[in-house]
């Protein structure tokens, strides 16, 4: 296409139109055509910019007739077509450097990185040769402040820009403006940022601090794990610049997530943790409030002064599950942005630090990237930093570590620009840091800095890396540190004297020895307005009875408001039927079903000034089509959300259908809930079983975060659970796993069985000042069960009942000989079978909350049955699952206290490897069998 032959024949008119458009607005034509037109003799310039279409036609008619071996006369200028063709090839060469220059860049401080040859960066690939080096060509769109240059000068500029210490990957992006923005920022520098002496001194000071802390810890606590930053010290000036520059953009808060590599260095040298406190942790003198966690998992917060004012820094707590902290950070950031009414992410910045192996290997990285531009989870762009040690624990072979050239290739899925940089070139690191942050603020999207460094020690300080990477560590032992290399450079350039370098090192060591804060910009008396006040939620203990009643008139008014819809809203026939039925419920003409009770709970919470946020894969409608909180107009698909129109600020209520992710989404909501105490934050699984995919979030954050890190969290998880013949993947929310993790009143586990119960349970979660995660085994078939309904009066009065005693009028306490204890949907199976058999001497007690276990409430219910000779626990889950193993000791304790000297019997499915039967017939057989166990004659 780039030979002159394409300018004739049927293409001529198309090319003429393109060129005409180019003359009016060059940005409106494709980049390759623009580069081509840039290279042509400009008739527009020669005619003062006023060119008729006739002149354009004549110009291309002459050009199209010319072979590559013939001169052409254009406006009295003789142009050699051989040169013309080479001009086009030069433009191709420039494009090749932009696309593939990073593959030739000197990124590895150790020079061990395997690099394939890049043929399209060779002159011969483009029909050019060294003989053309002196030939002058137009530079086209290359931003080097010259319209023309010799081939030698062009190649030299391209090598300096694209093949130096920085490898730019941005040509995979489809947005032309973003690519042009990057080109205009990087190309005029010609690979030399050109920082003044003051900036270079500051870089050296930051590197001295980074290296100084590691050396101090090594000498003071040799052989102790700390996951040091040696080899990656450039991270400290990188993050320091991010924060200071973010402050100049008006940022008020920065939330940082990172794994353990370099964490202690960040805490001391960036966030301003007192070194004396860190030393106390090393020496075992720290004060422990609970189980705690190792020092390189701890979070921290502080306020730092920047050119734009005070900035609050928060480093998230993180377990050793590496990348799982990334979505937690995003959730915390989104909560802060919502609180500040900052939808574009101007005031709150997320920074995620990653290891190279984890970034390439962990699926949650992809999930988090996929969330980045969605309505529910967007935060205006995250700055991702890869501390690229080029080895993961002991895996360094690229063909073992990943299937891609770079560990960062996953970021291309959201077309994020990727800046690879040699960590031994601090000025290059500083330049890409500034570039990355500016890009984030210009385009509000993710950006990646790949800090290519090395790990001077093993995976930790007790590990010997030479056994698995002998050649790498031979090189590392001979390699001067980043600070040492940069100090030599600055001394050579006359920027500093050797005595100044020594003074930097000694003054930092002295500060550590005296226990001083080493961050000079640390604000000693921070602005308290930047903090969320958690005091109202501290120091509370669990109580089974919390009053969640409200005035009937208030509830009736709310019911009318949420059922009053716009007259022009055209609903689907089935949805309209539900809306009409709810209007009857609001008017007291029908009983309140589960979906409407849940809606009224949210409405009542909103009107008390508390935010409500609900996410999950089908939450707008509800997986089981019961919620319909989001109504869609059938004529135009516009959404109408009744609850958003209930309060003055519609953003107080947010409900979002999530992407098909459990791990990242649940982690995000955990981060949101730990940052917003006065909100009901709900994550609903499509089926409870799918929470399996987020088990690490449940284990490492939700059930243990308070006792490891003193982080309160009021997250609510709605997990559809119930055995209804739908097979092993759509029956169980794995109740047993949650109960197994219950201890120290860490979470609440509830199985509500009526619409009244779900109403009060949700209200209790927000109105009660206790902040504990709430795990709800929510129903499926009960959503439409006629006997789960309630009146408006029942919703207005009372509270959540942790235990519900016998409610059947035919059961008289003095005639009861057997008590069946149960939780969840199985109650209705038991009651239906009891009625069928016309049994009047068996009472059924529901445990609506299994943890904290309601000992006193159960005792109160059971003590009225003075003639009991048999107590049965009945569950629909297999014996090795459900509540049996985790809760039987609590029930036995109550029985013993009441003097019931008998064995607690089990009635339920036999132990099973699978969660449930896959065949409906087998499911029914098992159901009938355990109902017989529970209600039939007691076997001897």
From TrEMBL:
NCBIfam families: 2oxo_dh_E1, PRK09404.1, PRK12270.1. It catalyses: N(6)-[(R)-lipoyl]-L-lysyl-[protein] + 2-oxoglutarate + H(+) = N(6)-[(R)-S(8)-succinyldihydrolipoyl]-L-lysyl-[protein] + CO2. Pfam families: 2-oxogl_dehyd_N, E1_dh, OxoGdeHyase_C, Transket_pyr. Its EC number is 1.2.4.2. The keyword Oxidoreductase applies. The gene is sucA. Its cofactor is thiamine diphosphate. Homodimer. Part of the 2-oxoglutarate dehydrogenase (OGDH) complex composed of E1 (2-oxoglutarate dehydrogenase), E2 (dihydrolipoamide succinyltransferase) and E3 (dihydrolipoamide dehydrogenase); the complex contains multiple copies of the three enzymatic components (E1, E2 and E3). SMART domains: Transket_pyr. The keyword Oxidoreductase applies. E1 component of the 2-oxoglutarate dehydrogenase (OGDH) complex which catalyzes the decarboxylation of 2-oxoglutarate, the first step in the conversion of 2-oxoglutarate to succinyl-CoA and CO(2). Residues 592-785 form the Transketolase-like pyrimidine-binding domain. Belongs to the alpha-ketoglutarate dehydrogenase family. It comes from the Bacteria. Keywords: Glycolysis, Oxidoreductase, Thiamine pyrophosphate. One of its GO terms (cellular component) is cytosol. This is 2-oxoglutarate dehydrogenase E1 component. InterPro entries: 2-oxogl_dehyd_N, 2oxoglutarate_DH_E1, DH_E1, KGD_C_sf, ODO-1/KGD_C, THDP-binding, Transketolase-like_Pyr-bd. GO terms for molecular function: oxoglutarate dehydrogenase (succinyl-transferring) activity; thiamine pyrophosphate binding. GO terms for biological process: glycolytic process; tricarboxylic acid cycle.
């Amino acid at each position: 296409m780039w030979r002159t032959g394409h300018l004739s024949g049927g293409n001529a008119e198309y090319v003429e139109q393109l060129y005409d458009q180019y003359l009016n607005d060059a940005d409106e034509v494709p980049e390759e055509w623009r580069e081509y037109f840039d290279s042509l003799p400009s008739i527009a310039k020669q005619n003062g910019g006023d060119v008729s279409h006739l002149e354009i036609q004549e110009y291309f008619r002459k050009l199209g007739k010319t072979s590559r071996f013939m001169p052409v006369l254009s406006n009295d200028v003789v142009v050699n077509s051989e040169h013309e063709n080479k001009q086009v090839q030069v433009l191709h060469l420039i494009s090749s450097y932009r696309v593939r220059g990073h593959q030739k860049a000197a990124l590895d401080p150790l020079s061990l990185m395997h690099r394939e040859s890049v043929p399209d960066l060779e002159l011969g690939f483009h029909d050019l040769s060294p003989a053309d080096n002196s030939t002058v060509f137009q530079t086209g769109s290359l931003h080097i402040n010259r319209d023309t240059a010799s081939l030698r000068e062009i190649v030299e500029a391209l090598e300096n820009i694209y093949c130096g210490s920085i490898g730019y990957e941005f040509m995979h992006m489809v947005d032309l403006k973003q690519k042009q923005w990057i080109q205009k920022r990087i190309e005029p520098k010609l690979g030399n940022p050109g920082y003044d002496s003051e900036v270079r001194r500051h870089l050296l000071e930051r590197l001295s601090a980074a290296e100084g802390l590691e050396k101090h810890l090594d000498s003071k606590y040799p052989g102790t794990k700390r996951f040091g930053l040696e080899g990656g010290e450039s991270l400290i000036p990188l993050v320091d610049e991010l924060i200071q520059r973010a402050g100049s953009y008006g940022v008020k808060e920065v939330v940082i997530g990172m794994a353990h590599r370099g964490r202690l260095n960040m805490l001391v040298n960036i966030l301003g943790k007192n070194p004396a406190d860190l030393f106390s942790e090393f020496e075992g003198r720290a004060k422990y409030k609970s189980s705690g966690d190792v020092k390189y998992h701890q979070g921290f917060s502080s306020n730092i002064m920047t050119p734009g004012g005070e900035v609050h820094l928060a480093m998230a707590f993180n377990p050793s599950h590496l990348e799982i902290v990334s979505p937690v950070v995003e959730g915390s950031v989104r909560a802060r942005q919502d609180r500040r009414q900052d939808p574009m992410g101007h005031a709150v910045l997320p920074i995620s630090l990653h290891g190279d192996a984890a970034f390439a290997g962990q699926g949650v990285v992809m999930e988090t990237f996929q969330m980045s531009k969605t309505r529910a989870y967007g935060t205006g762009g995250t700055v991702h930093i890869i501390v690229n040690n080029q080895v993961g624990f002991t895996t360094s072979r690229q063909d073992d570590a990943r299937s891609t050239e770079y560990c960062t290739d996953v970021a291309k899925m959201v077309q994020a620009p990727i800046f690879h940089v040699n960590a031994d070139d601090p000025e290059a690191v500083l330049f890409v840091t500034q570039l990355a942050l500016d890009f984030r603020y210009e385009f509000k999207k993710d950006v990646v800095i790949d800090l290519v460094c090395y790990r001077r020690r093993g995976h930790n300080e007790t590990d010997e890396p030479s056994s698995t990477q002998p050649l790498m560590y031979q090189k590392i032992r001979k390699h001067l540190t980043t600070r040492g290399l940069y100090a030599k450079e600055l001394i050579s350039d006359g920027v500093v004297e050797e005595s100044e370098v020594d003074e930097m090192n000694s003054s930092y060591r002295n500060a550590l020895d005296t226990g001083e804060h080493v961050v000079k910009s640390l604000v000693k008396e921070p602005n308290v307005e930047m903090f969320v006040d958690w005091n109202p939620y501290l120091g509370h203990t669990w109580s089974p009875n919390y009053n969640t009643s409200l005035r009937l008139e208030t509830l009736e008014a709310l019911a009318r408001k949420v059922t009053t819809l716009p007259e022009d809203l055209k609903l689907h026939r089935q949805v309209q039927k539900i809306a009409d039925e709810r209007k009857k419920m609001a008017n007291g003409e029908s009983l309140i079903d589960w979906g409407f009770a849940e809606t009224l709970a949210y409405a009542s919470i909103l009107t008390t000034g508390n935010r409500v946020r609900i996410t999950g894969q089908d939450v707008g409608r509800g997986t089981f089509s019961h919620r319909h909180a989001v109504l869609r107009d059938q004529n135009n698909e516009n959404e109408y959300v009744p609850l958003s129109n209930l309060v003055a600020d519609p953003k107080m209520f947010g409900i979002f259908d999530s992407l098909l992710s459990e791990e990242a989404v649940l982690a995000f909501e955990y981060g949101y809930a730990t940052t917003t105490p006065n909100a009901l934050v709900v994550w609903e699984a499509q089926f409870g079983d799918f929470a399996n995919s987020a088990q690490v979030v449940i284990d490492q954050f939700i059930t243990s975060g308070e006792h490891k890190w003193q982080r309160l969290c009021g997250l609510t998880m709605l997990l559809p659970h119930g055995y209804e013949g739908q097979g092993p993947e759509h029956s169980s929310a794995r109740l047993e796993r949650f109960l197994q993790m219950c201890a120290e009143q860490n979470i609440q586990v509830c199985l509500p069985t009526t619409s009244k119960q779900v109403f009060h349970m949700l209200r209790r979660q927000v109105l009660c000042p206790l902040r504990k995660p709430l795990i709800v085994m929510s129903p499926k078939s009960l959503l439409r069960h006629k006997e789960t309904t309630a009146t408006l009066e029942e919703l207005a009065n009372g509270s959540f009942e942790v235990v519900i005693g016998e409610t059947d009028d035919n059961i008289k306490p003095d005639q009861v000989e057997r008590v069946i204890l149960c939780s969840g949907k199985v109650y209705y199976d038991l009651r239906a079978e009891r009625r069928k058999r016309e049994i009047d001497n068996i009472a059924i007690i529901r445990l609506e909350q299994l943890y904290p276990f309601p000992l006193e409430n159960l005792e109160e219910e059971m003590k009225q049955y003075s003639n009991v000779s048999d107590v049965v626990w009945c569950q629909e889950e297999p014996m090795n699952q459900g509540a049996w193993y985790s809760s039987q000791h609590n029930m036995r304790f109550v029985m013993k206290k009441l003097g019931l000297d008998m064995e607690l019997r089990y009635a339920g499915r036999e132990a099973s490897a699978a969660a449930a039967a896959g065949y409906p017939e087998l499911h029914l057989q098992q159901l009938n069998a355990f109902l017989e166990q529970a209600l039939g004659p007691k076997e001897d």
